[in-house]
Amino acid sequence: MVHRFTLTTPLYYVNDKPHIGSVYTTLAADAVARWQRLQGDQVRLITGCDEHGLKIQRSAAAAGVPTREYVDRMAGHFAALWQRIGISHDRFVRTSAPRHQRLVHEFYERVRSNGHIRLGQQQGWYCVACEEFKDVNGEDGGTPRCDIHDRPLEWRDEENLFFCLSHFQEPIARLVERESFVGPASRRREVQRFVEAGLRDFSISRVDLPWGIPVPHQPGHTFYVWFDALLGYITALSDPDGPQDLATALASGWPAQLHLIGKDILRFHAVYWPAMLLAADLPLPERVFGHGFLTREGRKMGKTLGNTLDPDALFAKVGVEPVRWYLLRNIQFGEDGDIQRKRFLDLVNNDLANTIGNLVNRTVSMSRRWFADCVPPEGEKEDASPHPLAPVATAATARVGRCFAQQDLQGAAMATLALAEAINGHLSEQAPWSAIKDVSRRAAVAAVLYGVLEATRLVGLCLQPLTPELSNRLLIQLGCEPLDSRHGLPPGAWEQLVRWGGLPHGQPLPEASPLMARLELDGDL
Ligand code: MSP
Prior knowledge:
This protein is an alpha/beta fold. The protein has two domains: about 5-290, Rossmann fold, CATH 3.40.50; about 350-495, Isoleucyl-tRNA Synthetase, Domain 1. It is about 45% helix and about 15% strand.
């Protein structure tokens, strides 16, 4: 049976062009999606844009552009960037699409008829940048500020529709007790504390906010942007050309196995969203993973600080693979991470150009030189004992699998890198370049080199979800077929591929060419 794996990135606000934070979540999700496809799963990687709400309405107004035109333009930037950097999403959803509105209405009717909607008076301080009411009081007569955006909050006092979150205190408390539901563990405790403090109903409609989905039978009200946005994950599953009702969408890959998000929006995904789904009698996602925030040279990034990192410029300067490698390998996924120019160059040059790139280059060169442009032939094997790299490589590939299963993307990268380092160590120890001078040791050299090439092939396979292009250049350099992690493999194929001994003896090796050029950079990243 084919296993389905639905995972999501957040749906990004289109108040502006993509920033490095949205790139980070998307690259991580892409790596996980590629891994699952290699395992034979039928993957749906969902991404898209969250296009309603006051923040976006105001951004459009500030730009002097009609809102519709503005969101179309911004959504276009996201789609173009994902295309340019090879993100393998299966669905790109936009919450301003008519089919989304239909689905939101259907969902809302279910929740309402189940008795979980009421009218109430909403009073409180609102952060437009967060699109969220904040738990503060404007003491001292002053206007409180958002501690994330450092912007003044806005006072609201209006009649809104409320979602009765309080009805779900018990089931949500039980849900977040489940270890697997929120990752990493430290963030689960944060969510648990929030739930223990008592769940309060939240308002799901706004008055005088034309840029939103109208609430049925409630003239003048549009849906609160988060109520509509989360449902975008389900809309994404429906076929734009097919039937567009809730049931059809749900049948195409719901529930999601994984919501990948940043830590700032954990509460929405781990508390509000499951409660909304319970209110509509729908199945819950299996896991929510909140990653940390990126800083730059130790400082928070922001427009006012003038230290943002424009993804387009960054990719143009250094290419895609170095950015993927740096973000996935350098940062423990789940923790905050810093982008540092020097460390970026060090890691890319040490890990990719030296440890992996040179390994491939010199082993392919040696093999070609001494074994007629081929992988050493079988007949020259000296004895039947397993190559010392075989257990090392097998353990490494197993470790990569365990890491991916728990979103330990750094662990997967490090296990791959450690394998490459072990191969280099083995090469230095065996020094085939000396041994080959002694004709009687030719068979031993053949065995050493075969093992080195075979273990290197496994490095190439493990790199596939992390840095797919580098992985394929490596595999091609060994005369192997590149992998297609955008479309995936049949179930069971990965186990076959990573089995030791898969590299055919005597396979022709193409002329060695540098796998990864050293990165030289004048100026900033
Ligand atoms: N529209 C909502 C999500 C709705 S999901 C149904 C939203 N959008 S966002 O564009 O503001 O943020 C998208 C993601 O970027 C979030 O996961 C957020 O955590 C992440 N990041 C924003 N700044 C970031 C950093 N500096 N570092 C890492 N990720 C950051 O929230």
